[in-house]
Amino acid sequence: MAQVKNSEELRIRLQQAAGEDILAFGWGVLGMKNVFVALTPSAVFLEFISFTGNTKESRRIPFEELEFVYAIAGDASTPKLMKLNLESQITDAMTGTLLFKENTGKLTHILFRKMPNHDSNNKAPFRITEKLTAAKPELVHMPELKTVRKPQSKGGCMRRFAILTMIIAAVLTVVFAVTLKEGWGMASIIGFSTGVIFGGIFAPMIPIFRRMLTGQG
Prior knowledge:
The chain has 217 residues and is of the alpha+beta class. The chain has helices at 7-18, 86-93, 124-135, 145-148, 154-179, 184-202, 206-214, and strands at residues 24-30, 33-39, 43-49, 55-62, 66-73, 95-102, 107-113.
């Protein structure tokens, strides 16, 4: 299928693909994937597309398989502490997130941004939940994120810390030995110390980076 040029073309395309009436729709991203999202009278329909606009995969999620659906202004997959600079704040202000969880799946974040400007695309999550509220009001709610996200175990965090520390220490030891010419003994001490610091910083953040890259979790 060719790329869509406006909201009416997108609605027609989704109606043909889903084989049902389209109550609300939008163009979002799930992690690194472009996805057309539509609400039908009985399901949430997802059409994953390539950069050229061709269909890569389609999924139909019946209401019976959904635990909840909710819309939030901004990028709900990224922590607030990572949106402190002006560029991130501007992007966040022009973004909406559709959150939903299947009965047997992970929490899913689909981001809808201002561009493409198809009928205020960043407002699509709210149009979807508004129509869903009229059809299935019991589905439109949002529990505490901590209760639906998989908690980090101390063992898992320590394993990530150990792996990151060793990788960073090994790389930096070679770099310091070559550039500082202090000998392998001193280079390994500096490399290991630096690896411990960076491992401690980044190990707890790996689940956050994974969520931002995949849109799930």
